[in-house]
Design a protein that fits this description.
By secondary structure, the chain is α+β, with helices and mostly antiparallel strands. It has 4 helices and 4 strands. The protein has a 4-stranded antiparallel sheet with strand order 1-2-4-3, covered by helices on one side. Strand 1 and strand 2 form a beta hairpin. Helix 3 packs antiparallel against helix 4. The longest helix has 16 residues.
């Protein structure tokens, strides 16, 4: 999963539960019209190896992401999810993607 896509779609996502290694978010149905939705749906097939598995269920409006906490630290992802500054969100997502690509 490219965390930059997650950052771009953040306005459609509300964190419901985040524990080390597992993120569960509520997805606003308005996301259905967003051109980046397919990237989110196929997130586990491409992007970072830090993402073990994703499951987007549009019927229950949830996205579950299982990730490797050794590659993608819980605190860093939590900061990305809780930040409200769009510029900071974009830079955090880029930094995280660069750190897991090494």
């Amino acid at each position: 999963m490219d965390l930059r896509v997650l950052a771009e779609l953040k306005e459609y996502l509300t964190v419901k539960q985040h524990t080390p290694g597992r993120l569960k978010v509520k997805v606003d149905l308005a996301i259905r019209n967003h051109p980046k939705l397919p990237q989110l749906q196929n997130a586990a097939k491409s992007g970072s190896s830090a993402i073990k598995k994703t499951n987007l269920n549009i019927f229950t409006q949830t996205l579950t992401v299982d990730y490797d906490v050794n590659m993608l630290p819980f605190e860093s992802l939590q900061e990305l999810l809780s930040c409200d500054d769009p510029d900071r969100i974009a830079s955090l997502a880029t930094e995280l993607m660069e750190s897991v690509s090494v």
